[in-house]
Design goal:
β6 and β7 form a beta hairpin. The termini are far apart. With 267 residues, the protein is of the alpha+beta class. It folds into 2 domains: 125 residues, 2-Layer Sandwich (Beta Polymerase, domain 2); 116 residues, no CATH class. The strands form 2 sheets. The chain has a 5-stranded mixed sheet. Strands 6-7 form a two-stranded antiparallel ribbon. The protein contains 9 helices and 7 strands; from the N terminus they run αβαβαβββαββααααα.
Length: 267
């Protein structure tokens, strides 16, 4: 396993702290994922003030250990731990950067993220400009949403307030992203909506909707698509199919509840 320091990681990081690290990363070989990707997209789409609150206390990158080594060489008061072959983790490395005597900023370098194909993630990234010269390579908003809803559905530790906040923000980010594509090109917009709809029919999205009230499908109707056949034919088909998926999940939960409440037979 990758070793962790005994000091504490802050509950959240400020945008300034995040930028201090990111501007030193080789983004030719790295992709920003996780809560800080949520933060940067939320800033880009102006989703509100102080959105960094409740986002994340660390920085996650898809990157090899060589990228971690380069970053460590540029930052004073940092400690780099490289994962070994027998490490039971997605981490390739972990970098701890001192903030003060009690707190450190943690950068996780990952070989993969749960619920997604790493090669596909790396092939369809976006770039976000920070300041005048620096561009950060970031996970695509639709992949980001899939990651956050997968975490919510499958990882109990990600169901806390921070995890739910990230998932909710990711839906808003996906909405703005899709809306920008639709406004730029109807053809590309419809293609992106179909990709999003396919994601919506997966278990993680349905679980997020039924069990946590996070409905990613609903954003399709808010995109302002004016294509006549989409509105008259395709969207009703999508809606009907999605409702069936929700109904199946609700029925499954009811069966589980009935089994849990069934009186036990005497031994």
């Amino acid at each position: 396993m990758v070793k962790r320091t005994r000091r504490s990681v802050p509950e959240t990081l400020t945008l300034e702290q995040v930028i201090y690290i990111l501007e030193k990363v080789d983004f030719e070989e790295a992709v920003l994922v996780g809560g800080q990707a949520v933060l940067l997209y939320a800033q880009t789409y102006k989703l509100g003030n102080n959105i960094e609150l409740g986002v994340s206390g660390d920085i996650d990158l898809i990157a090899k250990a060589t990228v971690a080594s380069k970053l460590a060489a540029l930052i004073k008061n940092s400690q780099l731990t490289i994962a070994t072959l027998d490490s039971n983790t997605f981490n390739t490395a972990v970098l701890a950067v001192d903030l003060n005597d009690q707190l450190f900023l943690q950068v996780d370098f990952l070989s993969a993220i749960a619920g997604l194909d790493t090669h596909k993630v790396e092939s369809r990234t976006e770039k976000i400009r920070i300041g005048d010269d620096f561009k950060c390579r970031v996970i695509n908003p639709l992949d980001l949403l899939t990651s956050k809803l997968h975490n919510l559905a499958n990882i109990p530790s990600k169901r806390d307030e921070q995890g739910r906040n990230q998932a909710k923000l990711s839906i808003d980010i996906a909405h703005h992203y899709l809306k920008s594509i639709v406004a730029h090109s109807e053809v590309l917009g419809l293609k992106a909506v179909e990709a999003h709809f396919s994601n919506c029919c997966t278990e993680a999205y349905v679980v997020a909707d039924v069990e946590y009230g996070l409905d990613a499908f609903a954003l399709i109707e808010k995109l302002g698509i004016v294509h006549e056949s989409f509105n008259s034919e395709r969207f009703p088909q999508m809606h009907a199919f999605y409702l069936k998926q929700k109904s199946k999940r609700i029925a499954l939960l009811k069966r589980r509840e009935a089994l849990a409440n069934r009186p036990q037979k005497p031994a």
